[in-house]
């Protein structure tokens, strides 16, 4: 078995599904709930990028509320303050992906150091980890609030390495968000892309050398001693082709 690693897990989109909030939106706007949820998430990320480029910062909860207001306005729909409050409360109780619990349990048994690393505010992360039953698997969390900048600012990744007490090159980000993986590698951190949707990776940079489709697959890869990971090829595809996995960096 390979030596245990220091793993920093993204939260939104990697451990929990922010788009699933459309099921709550559906109670208020049944005909456009999914589209509004998608725009809400897109605008949330866009605002975080823009603020970071401008070297400004806002609490992620405030930013998420503004993103909701934009998504509703873009659809020409309105909700009451009470309904918006209910949606924001739901954001702290998002559904985790089905592979998360078994994958984390295996990674924990393998002795990996694990921490959550997220754009979320400390209050949001604490509530969400409690609701999703994640505290038992992690040695706490690192919020970008600590450096007053959002991913993919290099100082957010450096902060995680500082908190873990490791050189940045010895820390591996686990994220389903390509911009996050690119940011981590740009800062000198290792990265693994969790390709949950079978989608395209941003062509701004090559994808990480380690690509998996789930956290259980991640545990499979990290448990192997001699593994070969080729760019843009998942463990499942390699296994089907009978290819040995490349040794992780």
- Cα Rg: 18 Å
Q: Which structural class matches the secondary elements? A: alpha/beta
Write the CATH architecture name of the largest domain.
3-Layer(aba) Sandwich
In total, how many beta strands?
6
Could you give a short description of this structure?
With 249 residues, the chain is an alpha/beta fold. Helix content is 43%, strand content 10%. The chain is globular, with a radius of gyration of 18 Å.
Descriptors:
alpha/beta; 6 strands; 10% strand; six-stranded parallel sheet; DNA polymerase, domain 1; disordered C terminus; 249 residues; globular; 2 domains; Rossmann fold; 43% helix
Can you lay out the helices and strands and say which pair or pack?
Elements: E1 6-9, H1 22-25, H2 33-53, H3 60-74, H4 81-90, H5 100-109, E2 113-118, H6 122-131, E3 141-143, H7 154-164, E4 171-175, H8 178-186, E5 190-194, E6 210-212, H9 215-223, H10 235-241
Written account of the structure:
The protein is of the alpha/beta class and 249 residues long. It has two domains: 6-16 and 96-241, 3-Layer(aba) Sandwich (Rossmann fold); 18-90, Orthogonal Bundle (DNA polymerase, domain 1), CATH 1.10.150.240. The protein contains ten helices and six strands, in the order βαααααβαβαβαββαα. The chain has helices spanning 22-25, 33-53, 60-74, 81-90, 100-109, 122-131, 154-164, 178-186, 215-223, 235-241, and strands at residues 6-9, 113-118, 141-143, 171-175, 190-194, 210-212. Helix 5 (100-109) runs parallel beside helix 9. The longest helix is centred in the first third of the chain and has 21 residues, at 33-53.
């Amino acid at each position: 078995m390979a030596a245990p690693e220091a793993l920093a897990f993204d939260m939104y989109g990697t451990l929990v599904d922010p788009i699933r909030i459309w099921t709550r939106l559906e109670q208020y706007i049944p005909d456009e709930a999914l589209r509004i949820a998608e725009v809400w998430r897109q605008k949330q990320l866009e605002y975080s990028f823009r603020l970071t480029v401008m070297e400004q910062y806002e609490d992620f909860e405030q930013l998420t509320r503004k993103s909701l207001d934009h998504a509703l306005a873009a659809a020409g729909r309105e909700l009451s303050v009470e309904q918006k409050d209910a949606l924001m409360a739901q954001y702290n109780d998002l559904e985790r992906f089905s592979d998360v619990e078994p994958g984390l349990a295996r990674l924990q048994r393998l002795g990996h150091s694990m921490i959550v690393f997220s754009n979320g505010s400390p209050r949001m992360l604490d509530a969400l980890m409690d609701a999703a039953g994640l505290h038992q698997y992690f040695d706490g969390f690192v919020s970008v609030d600590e450096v007053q900048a959002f991913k993919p600012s290099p100082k957010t990744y450096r902060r995680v390495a500082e908190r873990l007490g490791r050189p940045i090159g010895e820390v591996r980000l686990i994220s389903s968000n390509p911009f996050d993986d690119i940011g981590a590698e740009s800062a000198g951190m290792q990265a693994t892309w969790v390709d949950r949707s079978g989608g395209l990776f941003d062509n701004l940079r090559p994808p990480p050398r380690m690509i998996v489709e789930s956290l259980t697959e991640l545990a499979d890869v990290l448990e192997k001693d001699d593994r070969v990971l080729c760019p843009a090829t998942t463990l499942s595809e390699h296994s089907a082709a009978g290819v040995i996995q490349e040794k992780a960096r």
